Amino acid sequence: MSVQGACAMRPGATMRAGKSSGPTAASRRDLTPRRSALFAPLAPFARAGAGGSNRCGNKSSSSAASRGFVASFGGNSRSRASRLVVRADGGDDAKPAVEEADPVAERAGIETGGLSDLMAQLAALQNENSKLQEDIEETKSIIASVKPPPEETAEVEEMDPAMAGIEAFFNQPQQKPREPIGPGELLSPPDEAAIVWPEPNENPKFWERPPIRMPENLDPKTCEITTKPLHVVHVTAEMAPVAKVGGLGDVVTGLARAHLCQGHNVEVCIPYYSSLEGKVEDVQHVMDFDVPKGEQWEWDGEKEIRMSDFQWSMYSGKIGGCPIIALRPAFREGSNLFVGQRIYGGSYNEAEAYLSFCRASLECLRVTGRDPNVIHVHEWQCSAVAMLYWDVYHAQGLLNNAKVMLTIHNMDNTGECREEEFMATGVPGSEFNTLEKAMDERTIGHNPERLCLMKGAIVYSNYVTTVSPTYAREALNGSAGFLGKTLLKERTKFSGVINGVDTEIWDARLDNFLPANFKPGTMEGKALCKKYVQMGLGMNVDPHKPLVVCISRLVPQKGINLIEHAIPRTKEKGGQFILLGSGHSDPPFQNLAESVYKNDKDVKLLIFYSDALSHLLYAAADCVLVPSMFEPCGLTQMIAMCYGALPIVRKTGGLADTVHDVDDPSMSDSKKNGFVFEGADNNSLDGALDRAMRYYHERKPWWKGMQEQVMDIDNSWERAGEEYVQLYRMITGIREDNDHY
Asked: Which of these, 78, 387, 653, 734, has the minimum number of CB atoms within 10 Å of its CB?
């Protein structure tokens, strides 16, 4: 179509001139409208304006054509048509004969010839429209003839269930922005009719549904701001949620958040594992810097130490809202340290990697001008920091301000190290391989004798904590093995502090994974969460059956024999059991899941881990089982209480400090919060489990009261964080303005 034609067309002439196409390539040629015949008559019309201009931009010619067009159609079309004589071939140069002048046209100022041209165009358009209508009807009939029958279409287009689930996931209606939540309000009030109830065979699974969108302005957590802020640098191998394997990562992030809220300057120094790529907020490369490193060579019986500089890269960013210092070998080194699919999952020597990281973390503090009040190191991986700080950096005046705290999260791993491996720090291991410093006493008389990194950190730190008072007492009384002797010698600077729960993550009132939220005084949502889980897992939906949940790593420490025994025992006593977890002992539980309990409506063994599903299970549970053989602290039992579930625990470590039996006469009623057993045998477990089942069935009002009571217990990091601040102030001498101790 010419530019002239495009500009001159009027809506009335073009609205039915659409492109028509058929279902097959063969029919397309026959069904294509005759565009040249349709648009050719418009060319004379484009030239019909006064002055004969053919440019669309000429307003005078366009308006004149428009006026002529309206005036021409103002009279009786039938009488006007009778006066027109049009060539049969429809050629563009057709010259209609006009018998007499039209008085209407004369009054409008239109020449007789111009009116004849317009009427000829109208006749041609009407003729073409009729042909188009015929084409459209013909097209419809062809489409109808080749369209498959309805039942065939359904069979061809039937979608694979997995693909149907994915399509449903992405086609979910967009969530409406939620109103801000005021203090004490529930994120999702209990409304059974508003819940989209799950099906057992959903794909994706019901716990993979997107969490509820959080409001923009949630009522903020408030903290009492310190008048004397401390600068604390944590040095750690883990940090939740993205660099986490066990409880260590939860502790570091929870403690850092609590102290940041109080106004302290907190940074976390962590290896920049390759598995963290894309998971660190606001990550930026800061600088590269050289770090001393040594290697020990032996040739013809002669040992030689070679020193060199090894370049590291420093990055800043945030994990879980906390500022971090992330360190890894610079690109030029071509090193594989901290390269792997997961934390602790690379092909590198872990001792060498963490020893190098310890030296790099201290060198980073030096070259960036940081001199914190406290360097808080965690576990054996970062224990060398304490040794290097005092014998290298402080001794040489490179760092002067800090005091060092060590936290032992688990004494099972103490960090055994050869002298030549310690050279990765740039310092000969022989400097520390003495009984008074870091020698591993188990290797005395061996050739060579080795170092114990955790022992060295105990000796060199200004203060040592572990993660519960009972675990500290157990360590002093022999459970720490050979380290017990060192801890006894240093017992004046050793104590236990109960870990906390991160209530920004674990909060039944605001948890956006839950279909309904709840809190003490408004507990209806907990029953709805139980029904939601029962339906989603294909279990018997019965509010009268007590639901026992076990969320655990499946390793011997966690009492796997007792877990296995509790499954049939719970069912025998009229309850339901759900296991969520994985670990070295997966196979026997996987076998049970696929055989004995495959179609059981009261038992579900889920041999994997899902964070979203764990939230739902805590909320649904009536009881949470934690039968550990030993437990430095344990978070499971405290998280359970945050969701109104009564813990069933073995009396050990932090479990003994946080759970007090409901039938213990030595405890006040306000401190009773669960069911406790002391032995490591099935009968001991049965005593606590059976009581829980019986009380649930027989003491309904009491049970509901206990659910609300355990939710009111303060297991937050604010409480634990304050204990750490007091220890920080004790070793640094920096007092709060109102402190008088």
From this structure: 78
